[in-house]
Design brief:
The chain has 342 residues and is an all-beta fold. It contains two helices and 28 strands.
Length: 342
């Protein structure tokens, strides 16, 4: 850990599940296993002020800002997506997922997890993905979904940039969407990695995505057939004893298109996919890192130190650390390397 990193004041009291910065100002939204979503204002000097919070009826597992910075959506183990209006300070439920087995019995574990993302559309449209094997689209003015897509498997992770949305599902299935036609899967793929998908993250230029798995590998995947020769995978988050750790988070720098990876080994590294180089390893913490995010101009990198469930429920202890740090990003650490031609 960089000793100059700023610690966020009044962090969550339980595991931290997701971080997201507003695209309009330095406001950080945080979801956590204590059922809360918290919003912090980051001051120019790096200090933080808790500004607001709201509750789910179960663990809050993901969070997403609207493009105008006026709304925050979050998904939780209560099978609901909730929206917080920053201007009014009021939270409302905006989406619901349920799952019924063929035998008719409701199974909590099949429907608990919801992923949420605001789409890059003129009107505020929310996409929610669930373990009930669906993607649903919601116009926030209506209580019913405006579209539903059947997925091949449970949704574990999703990301969207512009008109590209990528959904990482169970059994290594990946669904790619062109949001010009959101209710049809544009392309279905299989993860290039051997083990379970943990995270997907779209390139800022919408040409592809990075995918991370539980076995300490990242795959760089392009969407168009003509770019498939650029696909590659690499090992990361492994130690000298050949122990392998989960890749929990991949965050792209909004300006340079380089990216970070963070894992169960408590390390963060910045990478350049085009030159296939690691730019900088910068964090080595006593704990696991479940989530990360850059602010809107890439000058702040936020990361959480919190239990990531990689060792199961037995290691979810009340004594576990729950902290968030802000790292001041230096240009030299994230700028792409210029490869010199001989």
């Amino acid at each position: 850990m960089d000793p100059k990193d700023f610690e966020v004041a009044s962090p969550p009291s339980d595991g931290i599940s997701a971080l997201d910065f507003s695209s309009q100002a330095d406001y950080l939204a945080v979801s956590s296993w204590d059922n809360q979503v918290r919003i912090y204002e980051v001051q120019p000097n790096g200090s933080t002020i808790p500004k607001a919070s709201y509750s789910h009826e179960g663990p809050a597992l993901c969070v997403s800002w609207s493009k105008d910075g006026n709304k925050i959506a979050s998904g939780g183990a209560d099978k609901a997506a909730r929206m917080f209006d920053v201007t009014t300070g009021q939270p409302v439920q905006v989406a619901q997922h349920n799952h019924l087995h063929e035998c008719g019995q409701r199974d909590l574990h099949e429907s608990v997890h919801i992923s949420v993302k605001f789409l890059d559309q003129p009107q505020p449209i929310l996409a929610t993905g669930s373990w009930d094997k669906t993607i649903k689209y919601w116009d926030l003015r209506s209580p019913q979904p405006i579209g539903t897509v059947q997925l091949p498997e449970r949704c574990y992770t999703m990301d969207t940039v512009g008109q590209l949305m990528v959904v990482g599902c169970a059994e290594k299935s990946v669904c790619i969407f062109d949001l010009n036609n959101p209710t049809t899967i544009f392309k279905q793929a299989t993860s290039p990695l051997k083990w379970q998908t943990r995270v997907v993250s779209c390139f800022p230029d919408q040409k592809g995505y990075a995918i991370g798995s539980i076995e300490g590998r990242v795959g760089i995947q392009y969407v168009e057939d003509k770019d498939q020769s650029k696909n590659f995978s690499f090992k990361c988050h492994r130690d000298e004893s050949k122990n392998v750790f989960s890749v929990n988070a991949i965050s792209f720098h909004p300006m340079y298109g380089t990216f970070s990876t963070a894992g169960s080994d408590g390390t963060v590294s910045f990478w350049d996919k085009d030159s296939k180089q690691r730019l900088k390893p910068f964090s080595n913490v006593n704990g696991t890192i479940p989530c990360t995010t850059f602010n809107r101009n890439g000058t702040i990198f936020a990361y959480a130190i919190s239990y990531d469930w990689s060792k199961g429920y037995k290691f979810s202890l009340p004594t576990n650390t729950n902290k968030i740090f802000l790292h001041a990003v230096r240009d030299d650490d994230v700028k792409p390397r210029v490869t010199r031609k001989r």
